[in-house]
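New to this. Help decode the following:
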Amino acid sequence: MTTLTPTPGAAEPGLTGTPPRTAGRRPRPRPRKQGGTILAVPALVWYLVFMVGPMVAIFVIAALRWPGMLQPVSFAGLGNLRAVLDDPVFWAAVRNTAVQLAVALPIMIVCAYMVGYYVAQRPPGHRVIRYLLFVPGLISTPAKAMVFYAALSPDGLLNGALESAGLSSLTDAWLASPSTALACLIALDVWAGIGFTAVLFAARLGSVPDELGEAAQLDGAGHWRTMWRVHFPVIRDYVGVVTMLQFLWTLFGSAQHVLLLTQGGPGSSSTTLSFLVYQKAFIAADLGYSQTVGVLLFLAGLAGLLTIRRLFRQTY
């Protein structure tokens, strides 16, 4: 009887579970998924029409001499830019905007992060605290302006409290004084933004593993060091995103607070760049000047975003 000995290294049929390959048979290609681009078309059209379109229009109008919506239009070239750069009101607005960002943004982000860290530790009543932090975001801008006007007017709550405390010498017309008008607007920006930002930080800190904080505290770190040395590096990129959002809101959204409270005055002591765009377009009817400031404001916003992203990017 002849015994067949299998060749070393050859797989016996039926043991590997792999069917024998048939010569000339090619694997069938997987069908490619279609329709993703088609679903994105409405969003792309919306973005092009309502985002890219107005952005291009800003640059076009900045090169025109346009004294009002129904007035004849002529080409101005760089004339609007020269007029803007020679205007002392523009440089006052640049200074006020820089002060506003340099003061409001660090205070808002640091305080909001600390409040968000406290809420993320789930103290007693933390759910109620989350809702209370949302209150400034639920109040309309005119209502918030009325609250601050009632507090800071000459016969308002702040002066009344100072007089009751025997500090009548410190009372002032806060919104009508060149030395305090911008500070009042900054206080409104911080009050309006700190609560919502704290809720965002609390939500992100809630996803950080509890083991990190517990390990740090076992090593002897207190809450302060745990907050800044352990949790902050973990959500550093998220802090950068929130900072960019608040930067854009403060840079472009301050016009409504200025309009409702100070009208840019006294003089130009509280005029910001975003309010100057509104003032020149809708009050002075100088659309070319207005959109030239808008172009400079856009470039400043872009430079600020790139700077913030570089400062808060992860280093690992």
Observations:
- Strands lie at 64-65, 74-75.
